Amino acid sequence: MFSRENRRPKSADLLKAWEFLDAGDIPAALRLVKPGAETLPLAETALVVGRAAAMAGFDDLRKAAAALAEDPGKGQALYDFGYACVERGLSSLAIPALRDALRANPGALVVMRELVSAYEREGRHAEAVEVLTRHESDFAQWPDRYLLVFNAIMAGDLALARRQHALLTDPADPRWVPTRDRQRRMLDRAASAEPVSPLGPTDLRGWQFVMGGTILGTLSPFGFGAGMTGRYAWLQDSYGQCLEGLLRLRALLDAAGVRPRSVSLLPDRDSRILGLAAAEVLGVSAEPFAAGREDTVVVAYDLNGSAQAEGGPEILGQLFDRAPGQVLHEHASNWTDVPVVTADSVTLLHQSVVAPWGEQMRAGEDGEVERGPADDRPAERIAAEIVGADPTPGEGDGRTPADPLAAFTDFVAAVHGSWLRGDRARLTSSGPVPSARFA
Known about the structure:
Layout: H1 12-22, H2 26-33, H3 42-56, H4 59-70, H5 75-87, H6 91-104, H7 109-121, H8 125-134, H9 141-154, H10 158-167, H11 177-193, H12 204-212, E1 215-216, E2 234-236, H13 239-256, E3 262-265, H14 269-282, E4 285-288, E5 296-300, H15 303-306, H16 312-318, E6 326-334, E7 345-350, E8 352-354, E9 361-363, E10 369-371, H17 379-387, H18 405-415, H19 434-437
Parallel strand pairs: 1-7, 2-8, 3-4, 3-5, 5-6, 6-7
Antiparallel strand pairs: 9-10
């Protein structure tokens, strides 16, 4: 007779995932399981997840998975498994279990909240709204109505968000006050953007501003209608694109009436290069970063890269509470691995980027594509090359809507009163994703 430890899944995808675990490849196994989590048998999924958890040393998830595999219809086992998955960053695997647990216990608000948390982490805000709306007669003002307002905003349903926000009472617990204030700022930013921005499923600039107070400078000219809506996937950056971003930054500052007296240089090489160029474009001095310096633009090439530099984490921590007139500009912001601190201005959103002076791909003498060496010239010489570059944007695939400078400055003029009051902490979302965020 086989022991429970020798049980194997029967579904084809889960059996393949099991074979990856046989080879010790946990990430490959989970990549197979996640896409089918909604339809795969929960008990078999739990077998795979439990074994992966045991291999990774996640004892809480291993125990919860074992209990679910033994009794997949038990409400407590469903909830415990879902909770452990959320805690271990496997929200997509938590959703089916938590959904079943809530279906079996419709009045269990703790289950509902955990399911909403899982939906939020997966960017499935419209589904979180549906769950919260269905349980509105039972839920509490805090956190439940707050969660409904927040997810309605993130789902693009401002009308619902405003109706629910009007019903939301002030929190009795002072710990909720910063959260309430953050939500109010989001709705205020939406109100300021609406006259000049459609705030529809493809309005990347508008939603980026609503969510975190960031003003997005440029849109990717590739894949707009395929769901990218102005974001880049992989980008091999150019000097001209860097200059275009700095010129948009200058236009932003002018339109908002912000008059910096300096550029503050961050310690990483990429940011130093771009910062030196920014000082030339803005006509101000360049100085090493100082936390309390007022009326300055702190320039980062990529904040995730800045975080890897010596002293970088400490500097980013000092940028949560900015000094008066201190503006944080990031050239290339990762929308799939968002930085720990939110910039006031961003040139572009990307998934992966190679700086113009980095190890870029090129055609070799034999015609084969190869990775070239990084440019090790002094930062000052590379910065001068940025300033002298051609900032004309590329044509792309011809399917991205026009984004003239006048439209950009009109947007800034409309929203500048609520700009620089943004939320410094990490954005909870990367921007509008129509397939996930809009019903």
